[in-house]
Amino acid sequence: VENVKKTCKGDIQMTDSGDHDRTSRVLDEVASARLTRRSLLRRSAALGISAPVLGGLLAACQQAAPSGTATGAPSAASSAAPARGGRIVVAMDAEPDFMNRLFTIRGGSIFAYAAMTDPMFDATSDGTYVPMLAADVPTVQNGMVSRDSLNVTYKLKPNLKWSDGKPLTTDDLEFTWKVYVDPESDATGRDPYRLIESLRKVDAQTVEVKMSKPNTDYLALWEILLPKHLYESTAVKRTHATARIPVGAGPFVLTDWKAGDQMTFERNPNYRDAGRPYLDGMTAKITPDRQVMLSAFIAGQFDYIHYLNAGDLATLEKARKDGKVQFVIDRTPTQPEWLWLNTSDNGVPGKPHPVLGDKIVRQAMDHAINKKAIIDQVLEGYAVEVGTQLHSGWAKVDIAPRAFDPQKANQMLEGAGWRRGADGVRAKDGVRASVRFTISTDDPTRSLYQQLIQQNLKDVGIDVRIDNRPEPQIFALWNDGGMLTRGTFELAMSRYGGSLNPRNSLDRFTTALIPSATNPGGRTFSHWSNPAFDAAFAEADSTVDQEVRKRAYDRAARIWADETPAIPLYAQIRAAAFSNKVQGGALKFWRYESSALFDSENWSLRP
Amino acid sequence: VIRYVAARLIQAVPLLAGISLVAFAMLQMTPGGPLSGFFDSSQFGTVTPDEIARMRARYQLDGPPWEQYLRWLSGFVTGDWGESYVSARPVTDVVLERVPTTLLVAGLAFLFTLILALPIGIVTAVKQYSWIDYAFTTIAFLGISIPRFWSGLMLLFLFSFQLGWLPSIGLSDLRQTHEGWSLVAEYAKRLALPVVVMTLYSFATLTRYVRAAMLEVLGQDYLRTARAKGIAERAVVIRHALRNGAGPIVTILALQMSDIFVAAAIVESIFAIPGTGQLFVQSAIARDYPVLLGIVMLTSSVVVVANLVADVAYGVLDPRIRYV
Predict the structure, then answer these.
(1) For residue A285, what is the enclosing H or E element?
(2) Taking the model in full, what pTM does it have?
(3) Which run of H or of E encompasses A179?
(4) CA distance A221 to A196
């Protein structure tokens, strides 16, 4: 049980459809020997303990875990082995564009990814990797990764099969890599694959991969696999039949898709775990109106909601108290909501912003904003404060959020020479501390705390002018004149981070990712450039050795926290809701973009 | 008449071309550009200028806007409406597979509107200022003033969530699970609320127009003459008054066609009905411009045709009208 306690920080995705950052790769390092969760999973499998029992332990331990005060009904676990059979109905508020994650990273495809595809690796909530299709997790310690991090051996479990019954082998691994790097294919998320220099098939289960440089995303490779036997060439287009109806090796198979209406999933007869999934199948029903979806769920017409929004949680908690649904939450922070501070003057490199270019102003703003009020008043308590983007996982850094202290903020600004004028707004060297604040015109929740922030900053003598714009204008690429990419905004908000690979929670602060004509997809929205931070980031990027990386990330995170190129307003927490019919539903894996569906092979119907 | 219809159809061509031009221009002017849906910088990894160029070529977004428009137009005329940005399927497939559903829901609503609005409009006109008139006037004003998204939600909460009589979950293809009468019954259960919501509003509007049109006609001298000839009151109202009052009613019906598409967008989203209205809303959110254009063109064509039908109907109702 001690082990369980240590490891339980569940997961499950909760997102706002707006600008949820879904890219973050699932990935990362292993070297650390803290395999408690993994060994727990293995040992229990060996003992024949059913997964729902485990799920129950894990859910129960949420109450014990220091950081996770679960208020939810712990996921139903009874001592009896779950019965096989039965179907559930899942609610989904938007139709997926594709069901194949090769082509899309939008929300709906996650459903397919979770239910129909098993990745090579996954990670439990403390950041520990577990092999899924892989036989083992390659590390330097077990000799599967070379000392220089460049050579990695991947091993598949024996006798794996695609859902159509054909064997899943290293031919498919090789083919998938080639699709990802074929410029003629429509693949998205190519970055980790671009680092593969060569791949040698040793046998049907083993490949040796040579990277052109250390690939910290090496465990995010083959998150999805393509069955080679279904394609003629590596130039796989979005028009291919498998874009809509993919063939995977996950617990369920998509058998029917009625556009705009529903999708039908059946049990994968060739699933690698012969006893699972317990359910015969699932029906995913597209219900565009969120209010209707929630009410129908509470009325018992759905068994699970794919993606919860922050606004749903209070309603679901009430329904749980009334005994109508199961609702599990886990207060481990996930993806932070950022207040981006544009440190550049209109995106001109090397030219600091007259107000936000001053580090003291940025720190004072962090002290001036009452984040607890945002969490309590706007988000009804369903979020947590964080002081760094590395707030959890294996590279967790202990940096507390700056305290809400307007007096201190005033002193800091005063000390830095920002003096109050007759209108109460501070100025220094003839520059008024006045900035524009831009969010989407169609974002009612954010606009609530936008006003709170405006008031908070006014109290310390910083004038905020609200200048909201249509969402595409804010988030467009550099070519299309996006305000964040061009650096023409001053304050803005979006979500980012919460990635398993700390790299992907820090990269948006590197100089290399400052958007420009040659880097139109760049994402360093703060337009912030700090050589010491870049150096620490690069050091962590030069190896896959977890200990070395952890130290380098720690350094980077501390430089970042002092400089404050952006303010983390809060971090989302995880939640999942099930009908009372379902048992075994748990918050299990890390993936912030995930849903409890990643575990759907363990769900069953209550007898 | 055939020549007239042909001439009107030819006139419709520049009209539709104009509509397409305006719609195309509006989408062009949308901030962010059509590609931002693909490369949303809040979502994606590294994007190279190369990839953007390839994407532009792939979706024929290269070249000046007028060139893009002409390319789209020539494709549209030849039945190639482009490829959906979102699902990479031909727009014709994406749009046309939704049409039967919308026709079913909107057609039923239209039918019930006629069945209810005509007799009630006539009765309230004949019995002006009676209690029946007051009762239906009240209902009509309620119907007009309650927005459909609200009445839809309220009916859903009452019948589906509170009472549990009707399912809220959309209009699936039920032919796999039901047949014969049980299929009809299941469809009826699922269609009941959306059709009621759509009917309530259009009925309320139409019944007021029928009443007004009838009142105008009922006061005319020739009806007094007809009554004086000893024709039964019922025949006076139906054959003489209604026929003469029908002109404006037909006009209103034709104009309501466009309203039906608005209603479909709202009602289909609330009741999770996979029709064109829901598709339009989702495509707008996802910035799927080719699909949006396809739906705009389709609905514009329907409205144009409906107006043509109305014009032809005038002639049938009133032989004095000549088509030139």
Answers:
(1) strand A281-286
(2) 0.77
(3) helix A170-181
(4) 10
Asked whether the beta carbons of residue A260 and residue B279 sit closer than 8 angstroms, the reply is yes
Structure tokens belonging to residue A453 = 């922030």
Q: What percent of chain B has pLDDT over 70?
A: 90
Tell me how far apart the alpha carbons of residues A75 and A80 are, in angstroms, rounded to a whole number. 14
Residue A523 to residue B41, Cβ atoms within 8 A? yes
For residue A576 the two structure tokens come to 């999942």
Q: Which residue(s) pair with A87 in the sheet?
A: A281
Residue A579 to residue A596: CA distance in whole angstroms:
13
Three-class SS state of A280: coil
Spell out which residues of chain A touch residue B31, defining contact as CB-CB under 8 Å: 469-470, 472-473, 476, 481
Q: Are the CB atoms for A59 and A587 separated by under 8 Å?
A: yes
**Which chain B residue shows the shortest CA-CA distance from A183?**
B51
Q: Is residue A75 scored above 70 in pLDDT?
A: no
Structure tokens belonging to residue A278: 């317990």
Q: Which among B45, B272, B279 has the least Cβ separation from residue A191?
A: B45
Residue at token pair 């006109």: B125
Percent of chain A as helix, strand, coil, to the nearest 5: 30, 20, 50
- Tell me the shortest Cα–Cα distance from B148 to chain A, in angstroms: 14
Q: Which residues of A touch B83 (CB under 8 A)?
A: 239
This complex has an ipTM of 0.73
Burial of A123 (0-12, 13-18, 19+ CB in 10 A): buried
Nearest to B43 among A21, A243, A287 (CB): A21
Banded model confidence at residue A40, pLDDT cuts 50, 70, 90 = very low
Q: Nearest-CA distance from B209 to chain A in Å? A: 33
Q: How far is A412 from chain B (nearest CA, A)?
A: 33
Q: Shortest Cα distance from B147 to chain A (angstroms)?
A: 16
Q: How far is CA B324 from the centre of its chain?
A: 29
Is residue A406 within 8 A of residue A368, CB to CB? The reply is yes
Q: How far is CA A243 from CA A187, A230, A239, A240, B29, in A?
A: 11, 12, 7, 6, 31
From chain A residues 494-553, the ones with a CB under 8 A of any chain B CB are 494-496, 515, 517-523
Integer Cα distance of A289 and A304 in angstroms? 16
| Among candidate residues A585, A607, A597, the one with its CA nearest the CA of residue A107 | A597
Q: CB-CB: which of A19, A238, A476 is closest to B88?
A: A238
pLDDT in tens, A210-260: 999 999 999 989 988 999 999 999 999 888 888 888 899 999 999 988 888
Are A287 and B272 a contacting pair at CB < 8 A? yes
Are A467 and A437 in contact by the 8 Å Cβ rule? The answer is yes
The answer to whether A114 and A585 are in contact (CB under 8 A) is no
Would you list the DSSP string of B32-67?
Answer: T-GGGGTS-TTT-S---HHHHHHHHHHTT--S-HHH
pLDDT band at A161 (very low <50, low <70, confident <90, very high): very high
Residues written for chain B: 324
Token match 């577990």: residue? A130
CA distance A403 to A367: 6
Please state, in angstroms and as integers, the Cα–Cα distance from residue B148 to each residue in A336, A436, B105, B140, B295, following that order: 38, 38, 15, 14, 21
Cβ(A42)–Cβ(A48) under 8 Å?
Answer: no
Mutation target vs A (from B29, B38, B46, B269; most A CBs, 10 A cutoff): B46
- The two tokens of residue B288 are 């799927």
Of the candidates B300, B304, B275, B295, the residue with the CA atom closest to the CA atom of residue B105: B275
Contacts A–B by Cβ distance under 8 A = 173
DSSP B197: H
Q: Residue B31: which of A258, A261, A473 has the nearest Cβ?
A: A473
A23, A137 contact by CB (below 8 A): no
Residue A567: pLDDT above 80?
A: yes
